[in-house]
């Protein structure tokens, strides 16, 4: 999946086909504009105001307390990028804005805005080396954006993932490592009413996760373990252990230790499931793989590991029947299962 320049008329198409336009420069120009404009619109609550009917330039200036010309230029940019449309003196939501920005994903966009702020120091981090850990942040507002944002985004794939991991009707226990928002566990539990869940994550994440599992209606079947998964006890007697979006946080040595610990707490025949960013075993990367590698280095001083390397760890940890599946809802991810 890549962002590409898309001509809006025949002259622009001919200019691109001529090979005489500096495409990388235009990609930089427009990507900078799209992300900055969209974030400003979100943080100034422009889309909610338009939805509520306060959608003239004057009304938006008054409600946001902003500079009139500043708001005019922002509204024009949002219109140009296709997030708003204009009818007379009023601004209206486009279909994609109504569906994808004001739907379930508003917190996911705010999370992306928080992450974009980190890129202001990218050159310095690259020159001096990464040191920060995204998860050391103690700001409650950060964790609210982070967990709720991931929770809402995970709804895209949670039902497909749960279907592929469906458990026997006899019940069982699932351990969700670093699964703070709780959606994957909750979805599994709703598919099997006799299943019990344990979610292990940092205290800041568990605080929000407890709210989410209550929203999902499974709070009576979920227990939270608070702490660093590398340091606290996990319990035992599990039939499934989830490693969802945590492999890229840890080093190779730490991941092997965690995989071995998971095997120790699994019942015989129990499974692990790994869901993480895809990093293909080839020289040229996709845009998603390349960017995620940079992103995780910036925010966690960590990296994405390729599929063959992760499979090797799983083998070293003593698992069998290692299988890779393709998820239709999020095809740019790695989804592995293995059995004790």
TrEMBL record:
<feature type="domain" description="O-methyltransferase dimerisation">
    <location>
        <begin position="27"/>
        <end position="95"/>
    </location>
</feature>
<feature type="active site" description="Proton acceptor">
    <location>
        <position position="248"/>
    </location>
</feature>
<dbReference type="InterPro" id="IPR036390">
    <property type="entry name" value="WH_DNA-bd_sf"/>
</dbReference>
<dbReference type="InterPro" id="IPR036388">
    <property type="entry name" value="WH-like_DNA-bd_sf"/>
</dbReference>
<dbReference type="InterPro" id="IPR029063">
    <property type="entry name" value="SAM-dependent_MTases_sf"/>
</dbReference>
<dbReference type="InterPro" id="IPR012967">
    <property type="entry name" value="COMT_dimerisation"/>
</dbReference>
<dbReference type="InterPro" id="IPR001077">
    <property type="entry name" value="COMT_C"/>
</dbReference>
<keyword id="KW-0949">S-adenosyl-L-methionine</keyword>
<dbReference type="GO" id="GO:0008171">
    <property type="term" value="F:O-methyltransferase activity"/>
</dbReference>
<keyword id="KW-0489">Methyltransferase</keyword>
<dbReference type="Pfam" id="PF00891">
    <property type="entry name" value="Methyltransf_2"/>
</dbReference>
<dbReference type="GO" id="GO:0046983">
    <property type="term" value="F:protein dimerization activity"/>
</dbReference>
<dbReference type="InterPro" id="IPR016461">
    <property type="entry name" value="COMT-like"/>
</dbReference>
<feature type="domain" description="O-methyltransferase C-terminal">
    <location>
        <begin position="137"/>
        <end position="320"/>
    </location>
</feature>
<dbReference type="GO" id="GO:0032259">
    <property type="term" value="P:methylation"/>
</dbReference>
<keyword id="KW-0808">Transferase</keyword>
<dbReference type="Pfam" id="PF08100">
    <property type="entry name" value="Dimerisation"/>
</dbReference>
<protein>
    <submittedName>
        <fullName>Methyltransferase domain-containing protein</fullName>
    </submittedName>
</protein>
